[in-house]
Design brief:
This protein has 85 residues and is mainly alpha-helical. The protein has 4 helices and 2 strands. It has a two-stranded antiparallel ribbon with strand order 1-2. The radius of gyration is 11 Å and the shape is globular. This is Acyl carrier protein. It comes from Streptomyces albogriseolus.
Length: 85
């Protein structure tokens, strides 16, 4: 995953932290599945809301959380589609 030099936090690390907080799973890893960790539609909206707020971007669809349910997979899409370099 790319690293934003302004924040020095990779997209992957950011998403792992967001997933951990939203899902209440401190042991969650980059490869933990959103659904298996107890994720639902409300949690998916919280994940995208936090991500949009952190990145200053308001067009990240919640459907990405469902299509790419691990922080690792979602980070790749965010980096590719939303140009987080």
């Amino acid at each position: 995953m790319t690293e934003n030099t302004a924040t020095a936090v990779s997209t992957l690390d950011l998403l792992v932290d967001i997933f951990r907080d939203v899902l209440g799973c401190p042991g969650l890893t980059a490869d933990t599945d959103f659904y298996e960790a107890g994720g639902d539609s409300l949690a998916a909206f919280q994940v995208t809301g936090r991500l949009q707020e952190t990145l200053g971007c308001d067009d990240i669809p919640v459907s990405l959380v469902f299509a790419y349910p691990t922080p690792r997979d979602l980070a790749e899409v965010v980096d590719t589609d939303f140009g987080r370099d």
